[in-house]
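Extended Data, panel c. Modelled sequence:
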Amino acid sequence: MQKAQTAQDNFNLIRMHGVADILREHRRSRPTMQAVVDGDVRLTWPQLDARVNRLAHALQAAGVTHGERILWLGQNDFRVLEVLLAAAKLGAIFCPANWRQSAHELAFVIEDFKPKVVLWQQAEVGEAVCHARELSEHAALWVQADDERGYEQWIAGQPDVDIETRVDADTPLLAIYTAAFGGHPNAALLTQGTILYQGLMLAYTESISESTVFLNSGPLFHLGTLTSTLATYQFGGKNVFIARVDAERMLQLIEQERVTHAFVAQPTLEQIRQINADGRFDVSSLWSSPLAPEWTNPMVMPQSAPLNRAPRLYGQTELMGFTVMGWLGGEGAGRPSPLVQVRILDDNGQEVSDGTVGEISVRGLQVMAGYFDRGEENQQRTAHGWYRTRDLGKRLPDGAIAFVGPKTTMIKSGVENIYPAEIEGCLRMLPEVLDACVIGVPDPVWSQNVKALVVLRPGQHLNADVLIEHCKVRMASYKKPKIIEFVDSLPRGRDGQLDRDAANELYGGGGYPATA
């Protein structure tokens, strides 16, 4: 009996496979192929793994063990992938924070996430990061990533010796701050297994292989870019990094590296078309002409990719991105991935009839492991044995899923998700403000702009610019209201809650994200 148990234990260990195990195999299977390009840095898979090993030892010496947390405060950089892989080897959790946030917002993330190590950059974001550090009382090891005397010196003396920790696939690896319910963002924890399974699905969806050259031109704190980064990594392709969106530099990299996949938002695409109108940059590896006529969405991939056949989608950060896809068939947003089950439930957890609007609820491998340190919210989100998305949808006659809209309002400006509750809370900090309601108003370029309806206390007076500046100082600039309208009162229902539909009707709201 003992021998049988030992053999089973051995098989359990042998079957363990995590995100870092792919790197271990790439080192052997692709010894001469390039893994990353970032400016003058060009690393093969063995070179990348050697750096990850050294970093893992440095992190371990700093007290990073299983379940401990590492925070990245900086722009896109090949080290983002490097740190994530080192965390994977240790069973730790890595968070690339939104570098566009204000110092106050970054300080909240530091206090909330409680990292053992903070890796940060001075370039462009240093002022906000340093201010956030002053505001925070959390003690951590801070290492500057863009200083040779910082990060590079820190890992240089460590050995290129693999840390042979076996990590269960259900171990959380990636934390992405999202969903600002309650006035603050919350970190969705995504496991190693979730990342691997979704990578397999997305590689097929986006036609990713070892021949892929992916330009990391979108922010790596969003899954919109990061999922493609990770799928490219999984299949042995090459990840090319650029610190932030720069249309001309992107064109240079597309030509130099023969980029096959990229993240290009609509405003950036228009800049690319203007700069390259004369065809001075060769973009033939990505588009058929300098004007990029094939562009349909920010995720740029070969025209033959399944997603391009039907670019309709539904997903969430909490679900590791896309969960329902048009190319899988059906109308609306499409059919669910084979990695999940989807039900449309009422508030009591009962499945509603086809064609009836209810809450999109999910089970399966794509579901997050919960929000970090949000016990009450996690309890609510897992009610009735399903992950409740807080998104409304319905099942169509052909069995496909239609996304109707957020159960709690969200504004979409460009590629950014903006949560009214967060801005409303910021406005109410001002003693002159009695009440506030934030709505999205249609915008021809950005889909929506942020409009704040503000009720001042009796006898108080404030200039709209003061309100806008107040928000700008305390949160990312793209979140601040662009339009302020002072009103005598806000529409409310019998329960006292804001009637957002009435506010939209009265004050020009509209254009909220939806897929019919």
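The chain has four domains: 19-33+48-202, 247-303, 318-406, 411-507. This feature is highlighted in the accompanying rendering.
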